[in-house]
Amino acid sequence: MSDQSPSFERLVPPADGHRITCENGRLCVPDDPIVPYIRGDGTGVDIWPAAQHVIDSAVARAYSGRRRIVWLRTYAGLDALQEYGKDAVLPADTVRAIQHYLVAIKGPLTTPVGGYEYVCLECALEQNGDASGAPGHCAGCGSEWVTARFRSLNVTLRQVLDLYACVRPVRWFRGVPSPVKHPERLNIIIFRENTEDVYSGIEFPSGSAEAAELMALVSRHTGKNLRADSGIGVKPISASGTKRLVRKALQHAIAQGRQTVTLVHKGNIMKFTEGAFRDWGYEVAREEFGPDTFTEKELWEEFGGVRPSGRVLINDRIADSMFQQVLLRPDEYDVVATPNLNGDYLSDACAAQTGGLGLAPGANLGDEIGLFEATHGTAPKHAGRNVINPSSVILSGKMMLDYMGWQEAGELVVRGLEQTIEQKRVTYDLERQMEGAEKVSTSGFAECIVENMG
Ligand code: NAP
Fold it and tell me: pLDDT digits over 291-337, tens only?
């Protein structure tokens, strides 16, 4: 029986399984943890069952049935509308379940982009209402699941749950087509700040009273007059927000025996936000991880250019230079810590270098909670066709298993995936780029991974 469940409106906690807890910053994981999942919109219906099959098989094999995950279905996006009713795109139940059970995983969710009033959760088309108000059915696919525009559910989840580190490991799998000559040389893990910078979401439109007020303030304090028709965005970066992110990156680097943590910033232009990020990053390394770290200056002045063993180099790079570095000298980089917007660009660019988002996993971590997720979108045109590549959410599952301390199962997932790709049994996206490859379905791909776990 699960331990003291919170009160849910509709969710029914599983009758068996136990809750993962956290004591003094360490997760305590029972052999039958309850793990909430969100299937996701669009191709979530294809990739989630495939991932669940792979994760369950890896756990069963790694621990001979002694351990298993007890899944708890929770709802967001289209599912939530269908289960909870009109406009309930992110029910409180879902947030409460993740807060309570601490470790969760999700598929992609539709995010309205443009300035329309409504969005269809089946095909992601954005549209305005007609004279009578909301459109009855989607103008694109005819679906009835059209809902009022909302802010990104992914961003809301990260903010409500204070998941301040977006963690994106990037590595290449042998055989995956890549636009660069040596994709194997890039093997990095990006810690991107997840709550501040442009993700704080503070913006005022051109022509608004708030924008005018801010422009007047800027003019009073700096003497600079902004163009009167400017929209204004606020980019806050705090010492506490930066330090907890860099702390997590350093803890990871030290625990995993990584070589380097690089602070990526645009401090040459934005001194009190991006530049301060760099300074606060070095401060955490010096004050909290002194004996475990060294700087580039110390490398030459104290260690004669020879890296001291067992210590992590902390250095920094300007963001634009970093984009060159990951292409030209990828093997010099290892763990990266960076503010939100730089990290957004850098993680997708690095993923492209190793074969694209289809194979890139992700996690959103707070002090206790870990929410693992596919990094690509809902790809609605492929939804329900059993063709899409499920690797991103499968590898996010592998990250989740590692986070739970079930590394043996995580290794089986990677082994199964590596061998399946090497055998060239792949989904359409890779098959069209790989000579002599056999095209398999989403579920068929998952089956091959399970077969190849050994
Ligand atoms: P997308 O869903 O990522 O899909 C764009 C294209 O990328 C697909 O048509 C497909 O290309 C390829 N692709 C994506 N995932 C793939 C996979 N697993 N396997 C193989 N190919 C894959 O981007 P979008 O169409 O711009 O966005 C659709 C919706 O998803 C939007 O509402 C967007 O806001 C949302 N979104 C959500 C997340 C998230 O939840 N984390 C992230 C990004 C976007 P081909 O058809 O050419 O093969």
Answer: 999 999 999 999 999 999 999 999 999 999 999 999 999 999 999 99
Beta strand pairing status for 146-148 and 118-120? Answer: antiparallel
The verdict on 192 and 327 lying in the same domain is yes
d(CA 55, CA 416): 11
State which residues form the domain around 144: 112-151
109 Cβ below 6 A of ligand 1? yes
Q: Say yes or no: CB of residue 396 within 6 Å of ligand 1.
A: no
| DSSP strands (E only) in 84-221 | 103-106, 118-120, 126-127, 146-148, 165-170, 188-193, 203-204
Residue 252: its H or E element: helix 239-255
Tokens representing 216 are 């007047």
CATH code of the domain containing 450: 3.40.718.10
Give the active site residue among 41, 266, 333, 403.
Answer: 266
264 and 289 share one domain = yes
Q: What is the rounded (10 degree) CA torsion for 240, 246, 251, 256?
A: 160
Closest residue by Cα to atom 44, ligand 1, is 377
Q: Give how far Cα 167 sits from Cα of 46, 313, 317, 382, Å.
A: 24, 20, 19, 27
Taking the chain, what is the end-to-end CA distance rounded to the nearest angstrom? 33
Q: 186, 216, 232: which is the final residue of a domain?
A: 232
Best CA proximity match to 161, nearest among 203, 202, 104: 104
> Is 199 annotated as catalytic?
yes
SS3 364: strand
Q: Are 262 and 336 in contact (CB under 8 A)?
A: yes
Q: Indicate whether residue 293 lines ligand 1 (CB < 6 A).
A: no
Amino acid type, 33: P
Sign (positive or negative) of CA dihedral 47, 49, 53, 56 = positive
Residues 289 and 207 in one domain: no
Closest C-alpha among 449, 424, 447 to residue 437: 424
DSSP 177-216: --SSS-GGG--EEEEEE-SSGGGG--EE-TT-HHHHHHHH
Same domain, 95 and 59: yes
pLDDT digits (tens, 9 = 90+) for 344-361: 999 999 999 998 777 899
DSSP character at residue 134: S
Residues 157 and 147 in one domain: no
Q: pLDDT confidence of 244, banded at 50, 70, 90?
A: very high
The gap from C-alpha 230 to its chain's centroid, in whole angstroms, comes to 32
Locate the ligand 1 atom nearest the alpha carbon of residue 428 and give its number.
20
110 pocket-lining for ligand 1 (C-beta < 6 Å): yes
Overall average pLDDT of the 209-234 stretch: 95
- Name the amino acid, one letter, at 207: G
